[in-house]
Amino acid sequence: MKTADIPPFFATLKAANPSPQTELEYTSVFELLAAVLLSAQATDVGVNKATRKLFPVANTPQAILALGLEGLEGYIKTIGLFRSKAKHLMETCRILEERHGGQVPDTREALEALPGVGSKTANVVLNVAFGQPTMAVDTHIFRVSNRTGLAPGKNPLEVEKQLMRRVPDDYAVDSHHWLILLGRYVCQARKPRCWECLVSSYCDYSPKTPPPQGSLR
Fold first, then answer.
1. Could you tell me which of 40, 89, 157, 172 has the fewest CB atoms within 10 Å of its CB?
2. Phi-psi region of 23 (alpha: psi -120 to 50; beta: other; left: phi over 0)
3. What is the pLDDT of residue 40?
């Protein structure tokens, strides 16, 4: 993607969705951290179904510790890898209580020291909860960045570095939301829905996917 096309690319996405939000459901920074930790290799829809039952009962580190490991597992057993995630979340809650007064820290170093919290999870929390211009490269962002030519890279770290360099400051905080939503609903893995894409004119992908037969577009 040409450098000159990047600002209008994001301006178009912003015009269509001025205040993008994560699709994970949460009402506090801790709930966000827990939901993101549980979302690894799982869908937001699946995580939300579990946390709708868990959070009304336990939505603080202290309350989750009080559930005990088996109690926590009972609430999240519908999520993939729930046993290892339960252990990570319990240990994370213990560290939050012992070292951070039960509060979620706002630094990358402290977040990544929590069990089950890697760079991607830390980026989501820093961005969504604390408004920092981080880039959490998931499968959707990786695909969109490469397919459009916005930020090509062979692995998530390469793509993240490219995005941090190429995304204009004005769009930095919200850009990862726009790219996730674009990848989830339009620039899909099996076949991009180019005929529905608002930013296809800026995209390097060729040839564009035509509309299905019988479509009005």
1. 157
2. alpha
3. 87
